[in-house]
Design a protein that fits this description.
By secondary structure, the chain is an alpha/beta fold. It has three domains: about 180 residues, 3-Layer(aba) Sandwich (Alpha-D-Glucose-1,6-Bisphosphate, Chain A, domain 3), CATH 3.40.120; about 220 residues, Alpha-D-Glucose-1,6-Bisphosphate, subunit A, domain 3 (Alpha-D-Glucose-1,6-Bisphosphate, Chain A, domain 3, 3-Layer(aba) Sandwich), CATH 3.40.120.10; about 130 residues, Alpha-D-phosphohexomutase, C-terminal domain (TATA-Binding Protein). It is built from 18 helices and 27 strands. Strand 10, helix 8 and strand 11 form a beta-alpha-beta unit. Helix 7 crosses helix 13. Bound molecules: 1-O-phosphono-alpha-D-glucopyranose and zinc ion. Zinc ion binds next to loops.
């Protein structure tokens, strides 16, 4: 076995986005493409010789090939050990858990999250630091800079390693240790939640349906919900992970998880609780019997009920949400008299706050919720949090949410996604919006008056780094908001996201459908942005 130094030329498009480098599988299959990026990671993180790395992915198409390449490159770059999930599989939160539990130098996660998989689908790779969280922007910028100047990469010439038997093998001088992807994670969940209470809930006939969407969480959900907690066999649907997610779009929302939605809205046989998670297991959608919980409300509700949960009974240090996420959690924070931080979109911004002990819970409107137990959002964790609350309060999902609204008011919320737009048209909308700031202030649109508008920028309270141009905000005098942002995870053209939020204190109006309550704001958003004229799109691709 010898280490080879392979000459290469840089690619110009390896800038990590909201969550690592995401491209079509075909892009990653170009000669040297993956290798260049991995070498750029290794050069930037400068791990000491003999350091340990965690490696795993969501099992999508190209996972296996990439894992073998990365192992050989890690061996050639002086790592002493790699902990790899059996078959090369680790959900994103489980990878974070393993990095933290085994105190490794960092980890590499292979995933394109909720994007479709298969030979024509997407692939992705990101680096997580020793805190278990996505590398900060300083690190991802360094990786990008390195990728633009790279002249060669190092790789061990060796046979592929078998990843199906637990235990250690040597690859050059490096140990490859195959670990059970589920056990460390399941143990962590048991340490946070009252499994006895949840087991009693299921034993009393409470019915759950969890849609793993043929993605990574199937085995995790089966082990935890069915085996350890006693949910009825078959409670986990689409449990078998598939390289192409069975041709589906593994994004847990009302559009893509429609199979689950139909079950939860069945006329006479709907289960009590429904949930789904995404390709790499970090997102969650929560449903009750004929009831959908918006992710922003879910975050607020978990914060309000946290002290019912053993792992959080001491209370929360603080909470954080991404800027476009609704301010529902802000109201809870205010009532609890704890700080609430507003960060740019992307989980990497929560890490510093958690490491500094400033926040315990955090979340995003994009079906992401998590806590300081790991440094990634965590789909199954959110499901268990909900189940634990229900086991204690003995109320339905709907009733718990309605009582929450009655106490704190309701933040009506919706997001419109316009996917696959021509890049120039999408950039044109954003430029037009920025150019309108000067004239928009004070303008009245029906019952709404523009109070302020800006492009969100964030100074990290811990390392003082500044992130600019994080989304255009139009804030009205009653606190209602419209936010416009370009996605940083898409792989085709541009995706424009429009986020809408209106607060309603009066319980009389809480029953309204969000689309009805937000109708005026939607019209204003279309008018101000000239979105239809500039993109030629009449309707959004997805509404959540
Ligand atoms: C999207 C979500 C964002 C999330 C990210 C990774 O990013 O909007 O909240 O952190 O996926 O799951 P975007 O495509 O908007 O950049
Ligand atoms: Zn994900």
């Amino acid at each position: 076995m010898s280490i080879r130094n392979i000459p290469t030329t840089p690619f110009s498009d390896q800038k990590p986005g909201t969550s690592g480098l995401r491209k079509k599988v075909r892009v990653f299959q170009q000669a040297h493409y993956l290798e260049n990026f991995v070498q750029a990671i290794f050069d930037s993180i400068a791990a000491p010789k003999g350091a340990t790395l965690v490696l795993g992915g969501d099992g999508r198409y190209y996972n296996q090939t990439a894992i073998q390449t990365i192992l050989k490159m890690a061996a050639a770059n002086g790592f002493g050990k790699v902990l790899v999930g059996r078959g090369g599989i680790l959900s994103t939160p489980a990878a974070s858990c393993v990095i933290r539990k085994h105190k490794t130098f960092g980890g590499i996660i292979l995933s394109a999250s909720h994007n479709p998989g298969g030979a024509d689908g997407d692939f992705g790779i990101k680096y997580n630091s020793s805190n278990g969280g996505p590398a900060t922007e300083t690190v991802t910028e360094a990786i990008y800079a390195k990728s633009k100047t790279l002249g060669s990469y190092r790789i061990l010439e060796a046979e592929d390693v078998s990843l199906y038997k637990f235990g250690s093998t040597l690859l050059g001088n490096m140990q490859v240790e195959v670990i059970d992807p589920v056990s460390d994670y399941a143990e962590l969940m048991e340490s946070l939640f009252d499994f006895t209470a949840i087991r009693a809930l299921f034993a009393s006939g409470f019915r759950i349906k969890f849609d793993a969407m043929h993605a990574v969480n199937g085995p995790y959900a089966q082990e935890i919900l069915e085996h350890r907690l006693g949910a009825a066999p078959g409670s986990v649907m689409n449990a078998l992970p598939l390289e192409d997610f069975g041709g589906g779009h593994p994004d847990p929302n009302l559009t893509y998880a429609h199979e689950l939605v139909e079950i939860m809205y069945d006329e006479d046989d709907a289960p009590d609780f429904g949930a789904a998670s995404d390709g790499d297991g970090d997102r969650n959608m929560i449903l009750g019997n004929h009831f959908f919980v918006t992710p922003s409300d879910s975050l607020a509700l978990l914060a309000a009920n946290a002290t019912l949960i053993p792992g959080y009974k001491q209370g929360l240090a603080g909470v954080a949400r991404s800027m476009p996420t609704s301010a529902a959690v802000d109201r809870v924070a205010q009532a609890l008299n704890i700080p609430c931080y507003e960060t740019p979109t992307g989980w990497k911004f929560f890490g510093n706050l958690m490491d500094a002990g400033k926040v315990t819970l955090c979340g995003e409107e994009s079906f992401g919720t998590g806590s300081s137990h790991v440094r990634e959002k965590d789909g199954l964790w959110a499901v268990l949090f909900w189940l634990n609350i229900i086991a204690v309060r003995k109320q339905s999902v709907e009733l718990i949410v309605r009582e929450h609204w009655a106490k704190y008011g309701r933040n009506f919320y919706s997001r419109y996604d316009y996917e696959g737009l021509p890049t120039e048209a999408a950039n044109g909308v954003m430029q037009h919006l920025r150019a309108s700031f000067a004239t928009l202030g004070g303008t009245q649109f029906g019952r709404y008056t523009v109070k302020t508008c800006d492009d969100f920028s964030y100074t990290d309270p811990v390392d003082k780094s500044i992130s600019t141009a994080q989304g255009v905000r139009i804030i009205f005098s009653d606190g209602s908001r419209i936010v416009f942002r370009l996605s940083g995870t898409g792989t085709e053209g541009a995706t424009l996201r429009v986020y809408l939020e209106a607060f309603e204190a009066d319980e009389e109006h809480h029953h309204l459908d969000a689309q009805v309550a937000l109708k005026d704001l939607i019209d204003i958003a279309l008018q101000i942005s000239e979105l239809r004229q500039r993109t030629g799109r009449e309707q959004p691709t997805v509404i959540t």
